[in-house]
Amino acid sequence: MIVPSRVGALSLCLIVAACDCGSSPAPTRCGVASECPGAGDLCIDGLCGPAEVDDASTFADAQGIDVVVEDAGPCRAIDAESTLEPSPVDIIVTIDNSGSMSEEATQVRQNMNNFARILAESGLDYRVVLISRPDGSQGVCIPEPLGTGAPDCLGGPEGRLLAIHEQVRSRDAPERMLARYPDFVDFLRPEAVKVFIWITDDEMNTHTPDGFRADLAALEPAGMFDRTIHNSIVGFYGETPSTWGTRAAGDCGSLARVGAHYMRLAQCLTNTNEPIEDCTPGRTARVCELDWRPIFESIAEGVIAGVPVQCEFDLPAPPDGMELNLEDVRVTYERGDATREDLERTTGADACADGRWYFDDPAAPTEILLCPELCRRVQRDDGARMEVGLGCFPSLL
User: Fold this and answer.
1) I need a labelling partner for 397 at 20 to 30 A (CA). Which of 16, 170, 193, 245 fits?
2) Tens digits of per-residue pLDDT, 343-368?
3) Is the pTM for the entire model greater than 0.85?
4) Is 4 part of any domain?
């Protein structure tokens, strides 16, 4: 597996600290040392004590309190390291190399690195497969840093680009993608969302949208294309299916044929323009536009919005003889610049916002989940660290 160079492992430190912080005169229960009344006191397994005390049972005995377990030390000692991996997305770009596509090929060459930069800044772990001939005015050779540039026209040093040197004709882009699949299947990741970018001034020849989706679903390994997003830079006039081919509905004089099938792929429509459930629509743009920078920026934004993020932490079980107080769980985000942000617990995914987290099951939680807005922010912070304090206290008699 190729390890992205921009992202180090995002460290998650689970600090299982004592909580249930009451205010009894002696001893004082605590979650952190700052809650203890004495200068230099430590918070040892839920009880405030002097720094020289290193065992909760010894301290409890001194206070005349019986502790169910002789050594509750594991409550303060549990430290676990985990990682948050950036959300993976595999992007397959297929460009028509026919004689009418010189200007379009130039736009792709000029904009692919900016497209990749936007994805990198979002925190996504992206890879790009480019299916195109590399030479000639209609070919695409990606310059550094995503590619190597001429003469080899291969992937750059980060390993994020795989260039499949293949002549794509006016109407056979789906066939070329399927035929060359064995050459890039190992570059794809089964868990990644698959994003297609179709670039042509023509229409599919032998495939229909429904037929192509079926052929994708039949590819091995099973499930590789369960989550797909199609984007189409093709020829069309109006914005609705009934006006895609109506010349009076828009301006696109350089198209060869209206790319209606590609539009249906991008807009999650069947062959008969019926909407497809559980389908994430992509972006569409006219191939005849003169400046493609906004087009690629729009597609990148759509990818960022369409790829789900996952920031989930297992909730450890308390040590023997200990109990969790779920109301006292605290989550802190330490940014790469060492500033800290106390995060707010919310009730669930439907109440999410930036800076919030929630339990997978409020009644019997097993995981801590960051809200998507926060998750994206954390994933693009190279030096981020999550600190989770779990409310934990000895069972006292």
Assistant:
1) 16
2) 999 999 999 999 999 999 998 888 88
3) no
4) no
